[in-house]
Design a protein that fits this description.
globular, mainly beta, 118 residues, two-stranded antiparallel sheet, 1 helix
Length: 118
């Protein structure tokens, strides 16, 4: 089995990425070497970012670990029509949406993209 199919136990080398695809106009990377990473935004189709990315022979980008040990996968969604913003996709219970901050709370947005890396 290839390395990209092994579920990460902690966040990816690209711990936090806000890419121009989010409309931010800049790139923020907490760790790693973006020059060597190939990243793409892929339609989430109501699935876990893990499933979406591995179906493309890529790995989902993680931004941290939940207390149950599962990885927060980076996603992007348009909350309330105000433009794309970063969020998280978390297995098993919150994997069918991208959870984003909006109006002081978290919203589950069912139409989203997952950040995947090669």
């Amino acid at each position: 089995m290839s390395n990209f199919l092994a579920r990460p136990k902690r966040a990816s080398a690209l711990a936090v990425a806000l890419l121009p695809a989010l409309g931010a106009g800049s790139i923020w990377v907490a760790a790693g070497d973006l020059a060597r990473a190939e990243t793409r935004w892929i339609d989430g189709r109501g699935q876990s970012c893990w499933n979406v990315c591995t179906a493309q022979n890529m790995s989902p980008v993680g931004s941290g670990t939940y207390r149950n040990g599962n990885v927060f996968y980076v996603c992007s969604a348009n909350a309330q029509g105000e433009g794309p913003r970063p969020g998280f996709n978390l297995e098993p219970n919150w994997a069918n949406a991208c959870w984003v901050g909006w109006g002081g709370k978290e919203l589950a947005v069912p139409t989203y993209s997952c950040l995947c890396e090669k």
